[in-house]
Amino acid sequence: MPLGRPSHRHHRTHSSKHRKRERVRAESLALDAESTDDTTTTSHDTPSQRVQFILGTEEDEEHVAHDLFTELDEICVKDGKDAEWKETARWLKFEEDVEDGGERWSKPYVATLSLHSLFELRSCIINGTVLLDMRADCIEEIADMVLDHQEAAHELDDSVRVKVREALLKRHHHQSDKRRSNLLPMVKSLTDSDLRLTLSLSLSLSLSSSSSSSLFLSFYISVDTHFMKKIPTGAEASNVLVGELDFLERPIVAFVRLSPAVLLTGLTEVPIPTRFMFILLGPDGKAQQYHEIGRSMATIMTDEIFHDVAYKAKNRSDLLAGIDEFLDQVTVLPPGEWDPSIRIEPPKSVPSQEKRKMPGVPNGTVVPVEVDIHGEHHGPELQRTGRLFGGLILDVKRKAPFYLSDFKDGLSLQCVASFLFLYCACMSPVITFGGLLGEATEGRISAIESLFGASMTGVAYSLFAGQPLTILGSTGPVLVFEKILFKFCKDYDLSYLSLRTCIGLWTAFLCLILVATDASSLVCYITRFTEEAFAALICLIFIYEALEKLVHLGELYPINKHSDLDKLTLTYCKCVEPDNPSNKTLIMWSERNITASAVPWSNLTVKECLDFHGHFVGTACGHHGPYTPDVLFWSSILFFSTFFLSTFLKQFKTSRYFPTRVRSMISDFAVFLTIVFMVLIDYAIGVPSQKLQVPSKFKPTRDDRGWVINPIGRNPWWTVLAAAIPALLCTILIFMDQQITAVIINRKEHKLLKGCGYHLDLLMVGVMLAVCSVMGLPWFVAATVLSISHVNSLKLESESAAPGEQPRFLGIREQRLTGLLIFLLMGCSVLMTGALQFIPMPVLYGVFLYMGVSSLKGIQFFDRLKLFGMPAKHQPDFIYLRHVPLRKVHLFTLVQLTCLVLLWIIKTSPAAIIFPMMVLALVFIRKLLDFCFTKRELSYLDDLMPESKKKKLDDATKKAEEVRGVYADGLSIETRVCVCLFLMTLTEEMTRAQWRSLWRAANHYIHLKHQTLGNTLCYLPQAFSLSLF
Fold first, then answer.
1. Which of the 8 DSSP states describes residue 859?
2. 3-state SS record for 173-239
3. Angle at CA of residue 265, ends 263 and 267, nearest 5°
4. Could you report the per-residue pLDDT of 433-492, keeping only the tens digit for each?
5. Alpha helices per DSSP H over 669-799
6. pLDDT beyond 60 at 589
7. 645, 703, 641: which is closest to 671 by C-alpha?
8. Using the 8-state DSSP alphabet, how is residue 70 labeled?
9. Average pLDDT over residues 222-247
10. Which domain of life, per UniProt (predicted)?
11. E strand or H helix at 950, and its extent?
12. Are 533 and 922 contacting, i.e. CB atoms less than 8 angstroms apart?
């Protein structure tokens, strides 16, 4: 029962008779509350159980918990001097103090409290006034309520009452007032006018009168808008007022909860309504003691559990139970083993407090937090429908409502940064792949075809795919397949482009069959074991190839390792006729009608000498030409500088320099800014480093081919049918590359909200593969590292983070615009040759290294790999280390490492054509691990394999609904528990999601009528409790 009354809405002077009547009523209410407290306490032995009971009560509109901003104001009235309330500290999540100089706020830090002050706070709640759900419109009414109760308890006389009331109503001076007084009015009006007007109008509409609206508007004109952005929407205020008054003989303590919350003008630093108020005024000489009690009250209000208790408390004992439960969780540090003056930095991640809400746990017992890793690995997107194109139809229905928002959500500065970064990152591999393919196919498919194919395929995929966050690119196995196919055609005098077209059309047809039969549902068997092995391989390939290309520059620009500095003036290098020309050289001379004796060898340039297959002689020459150490070393500087600068700028968001918006912008544009900076430095230095070569004309590389290829050409008719055999292997390659990358992108930790479309993705890849085959263009499929980099560049974090709190990861900005612009601009690159030719290739190689290294973050395999070199005491607190023996963790890692090494060997060997088959074999290797590890161990090390018996799961769900109906009939607790145990024996293959459904059905009715069921379940077998939780 509330201890207050709603009759004090308009204060007027009370007569002594009226006060006496109120005093008698207050005493009777206090007796009723104490009797209620005694009854409730006996039914709940510990504060923890009491708090769990309080938090388990149903919420009403007036007791819904909001985020809290807490402010500590202090006052000191001595010798009748005029004084005012001064803000000394504030809490949004962590404590911030006004420094001794009074000029600035301290850094946010974790509040450290003395145990003595917490016990004194508890005594204040016991002996002070507690007013819950009071109605008031202003600070004057609140002061009168508090003083009326103090006077009713014979703790205050009339003369002191007037002075205390004057003290409570004194002006509040906030820390931001001094800072605002130094700002130029013109600057303030220009920067804050829009936000001030919007917020003030929205909040003033909730005020009851025009006069209060004008007061609020005048108050908000001086609000710190920067700090206001950090306060969550809908937050309420908790004001803590402490101080010493020289005319008091005994303390005045009051805890007030208003209902509803009221905006009290001038009381709080920011214009948000006040819900709670704690008042502690005492005699002179104990200012520090009052200050520590006020800090304790403010800190405990920021505690997640007590915060909820304060909103739901019905009487004094509920508040005391919340304080006692908080004291149970407090850790005490010995005074001689640490320095209390040290401010503890806020942690990067705050542990969940859900364990404190769990029923049936002995008071003070540490409860291990189970991470939700047992849930289903994949959502409904991969469930087989049992009808033709059923999965595809569901994908279209799932994605269609978000199609317009996919473009609207792309209108962000972060998307611009992502687009610029990935355009530069995608251009180089596409051109490089085209160059390598041109060498392998004698120019039949080269750089211009690669650019055109990538642009066309990427645009179509970005417009119509189910998961537009995936970036398409070329892959190594495709290049190996093209090389083998071209060699086969050359050996048997077949048309390469025609046979390739047939294979591509067969592959597209097979992909269509896979889409029609919902074959993508098999992706559910690809667990983290396979994902990480594949992703780690691709990341390592990116790193290896970036370093390999840098080493290759050492061959193009050699250095003299045996130089004699004293003889540098005698060095020379010239081109001469080869003494023993090779057969290849003689054939080239014959084809070009070159006579060796007629060539002026000594006057040839380096490029001409290489073109005529001449030899370099001299002390300043290497096998490939003159020594050019400046180019090699400058390329190395560009390479590593690009990597380290990109990494540094990407992490700039967490630095201490510049405002948050500037840091965030620098972090978003990190790679693009690095590329621009390196291009400018390279241009200013002038060292002739290797540059990006882009085709300048849009036409096929060879004149003997067009943009449409005949599938038969000069080949025999039977090649059309025979092409189905290599197409089968190509289909496996496309399917595995595409779907493993899609699984990695669609991971649940990315918090994607718009769903995915495995079937629609595969359909688009198949359609564009057919188009590219007919046009004689390269094939493109999902590129793992580029896709991961795309997702990482679009991460969303909370903007209203409390001071000192790390921004929370909210998800990914899901949109189609970045991919669309990347590939549109790639197609226009032929028109931008003049600008792109200034980009040094070592800079792009450095970007490759950055993407490979950054994509390794978050791969659990590498975390487990580092455990081999760590002593147990230095190992991180990973969840799987708590529940799985270390030897089993090492065994799992060794199996995964062996698979990775085998994949690497096959990928780099002539047998690379069977690479997709080996990736497929990882699924079966993972299945064999079921014989070496228990399901519980695999649930922590890897996602559980999906169960094939869907019928049992459906039956389990039906049984859960039946259980809900049985409970409505009012069976006893013992009967219900037995029903749960019986159903458990029937559904032993249920996943954790089904267990939750069953458990909630069983507990729904029980929890309302028998709060002690949690204690009963503690005596159930351990296996039963583990399977439930």
1. -
2. ECHHHHHHHCCCHHHHHHHHHHHHHHHHHHHHCCCCCHHHHHHHHHHHCCCCHHHHCCCCCCCEEEE
3. 95
4. 776 677 778 778 877 888 888 899 999 999 998 889 998 887 766 777 787 788 888 888
5. 670-685, 719-722, 724-745, 758-775, 784-792
6. yes
7. 645
8. E
9. 82
10. Eukaryota
11. helix 950-968
12. yes
Between 1015 and 735, residue with greater pLDDT: 735
**Token pair belonging to 113:** 């409290």
pLDDT in tens, 75-113: 887 766 778 888 899 998 889 888 876 678 888 888 889
Are 700 and 448 contacting, i.e. CB atoms less than 8 angstroms apart? yes
**Maximum C-alpha span of the chain:** 130
Q: How far is CA 580 from its chain centroid?
A: 63
Q: At residue 786, what is the residue type? A: L
Q: 621-622 and 625-626: which strand pairing? A: antiparallel
Q: How confident is the model at residue 640 (pLDDT cuts 50, 70, 90)?
A: very high
Give the residues across from 781 on adjacent strands: 473
Contact in structure between 837 and 694 (CB atoms under 8 Å): yes
Concatenate the DSSP letters of all residues of 451-474 into one string. HHHHHHHHHHHHHH-S-TT--EE-
Long-range residue pairs from 621-627, CB within 8 A, at least 24 positions apart, any chain: 621/573, 621/574, 622/558, 622/560, 623/558, 624/555, 624/556, 624/558, 625/558, 625/573, 626/573, 627/558, 627/559, 627/560, 627/563, 627/573
Supply 8's token pair.
């004090």
Look over the chain and give the mean of its residue pLDDT values, rounded to a whole number: 76
Q: Within 10 A of 633 (CB to CB), how many other CB atoms are there? A: 14
User: Is the per-residue pLDDT at 248 higher than 50?
Assistant: yes
CB 574 within 8 A of CB 617: yes
Q: What is the rounded distance in angstroms from the CA atom of residue 740 to the CA atom of residue 12?
A: 74
| Best CA proximity match to 941, nearest among 374, 537, 524 | 374
CA–CA dist 838, 692 (Å, integer): 7
Secondary structure tally for the chain: helices H, strands E: 41, 16
Task: Give the per-residue pLDDT at 594.
Answer: 81
Cα radius of gyration (the chain):
37
Two tokens at 943?
A: 């996602």
Tokens read off for 655 = 């630095």
Distance, CA of 755 to CA of 380 (rounded, Å) = 10
Residue 810 DSSP SS3: strand
Q: Which amino acid is at 75?
A: I
Cβ atoms of residues 774 and 708 within 8 Å: yes
Please state, in angstroms and rounded to a whole number, the distance separating the CA atoms of residues 883 and 885: 7
Count of positions (residues) in the chain: 1029
**Confidence bin at 205 (pLDDT 50/70/90):** very low
**What is the C-alpha to C-alpha distance for residues 105 and 98, in angstroms, rounded to an integer?**
5
Per-residue pLDDT reduced to its tens digit, 712-734: 878 888 888 888 888 888 888 88
The whole-angstrom separation of Cα 80 and Cα 246 is: 9
Give the tens place of pLDDT for each residue, 801-830: 666 667 777 888 889 999 899 898 888 877
Burial of 170 (0-12, 13-18, 19+ CB in 10 A): middle
Cis preceding-peptide flag for 260 (omega within 30 of 0): yes
The DSSP annotation for 377-390 comes to: SS-GGG---SSTTH
Dist CA 79 CA 839 (whole Å)? 76
Share of the chain above pLDDT 90, in %: 10
Write the burial class of residue 934 (CB in 10 Å: 0-12 exposed, 13-18 middle, 19+ buried): exposed
Q: Which class for 4: exposed (0-12), middle (13-18), buried (19 or more C-beta within 10 A)?
A: buried
Among residues 225, 238, 221, the alpha carbon closest in space to that of 89 is found at 238
Strand 472-473 and strand 574-576: the pairing is unpaired
**SS3 label, residue 128:** coil
Confidence at 870, pLDDT banded by 50, 70, 90: confident
Is residue 63 within 8 Å of 260, Cβ to Cβ?
A: no
Here the tokens at position 744 are 């990695």
Report how far apart, in Å, the C-alpha atoms of 524 and of each of 432, 528, 784, 952 are. 34, 11, 18, 18
CB burial string 533-546: b at 16+ within 10 A, e below: bbbbbbbbbbbebb
